[in-house]
Amino acid sequence: MCDYELVAIVSPDASDETVAGKIDGVSRLITERQGVVEESQRWGKKRLAYPIKKYIEGNYALLRFKLEPADILALRQSLETDQDVLRYLVVKRSK
Q: N or C: which terminal CB in the chain sees fewer CB atoms within 10 Å?
């Protein structure tokens, strides 16, 4: 298993409950694939450096987790198909 970090920007139109649900959904997807979520943080609504899909703000979230490299593709596909996720970045952490 490898260590990863995920930073996601969720639409500012989404309610706090919706943002929490998105984070829980990603955490569930990781644990269903025998991964481990080590840390989950909500950074709240922040101003974007440049407009994304005509939004100038977004709800930021950070997840640190362990997952098999083969399962990262399923995680990325899940985030890509979610209409409320404006951008995301998954990076492999070095020790």
A: C
* Helical segments of 12-71, H only: 16-32
Partners of 46 in the beta sheet? 58
Per-residue pLDDT band at 22 (split at 50, 70, 90)? confident
Q: What is the pTM of this model?
A: 0.85
User: Which residues, other chains included, contact 23 with Cβ-Cβ below 8 Å and sequence gap of 6+?
Assistant: 40, 42, 61, 63
Domain 2-92, architecture per CATH: 2-Layer Sandwich (3.30)
Distance, CA of 26 to chain centre? 7
DSSP string, 30-62: HHHTT-EEEEEEEEEEEEEEEEETTEEEEEEEE
CA nearest neighbour of 2 among 70, 80, 58: 70
Side-chain-facing half-sphere of 47: CA atoms under 13 Å: 1
CA nearest 59: which of 46, 78, 50? 46
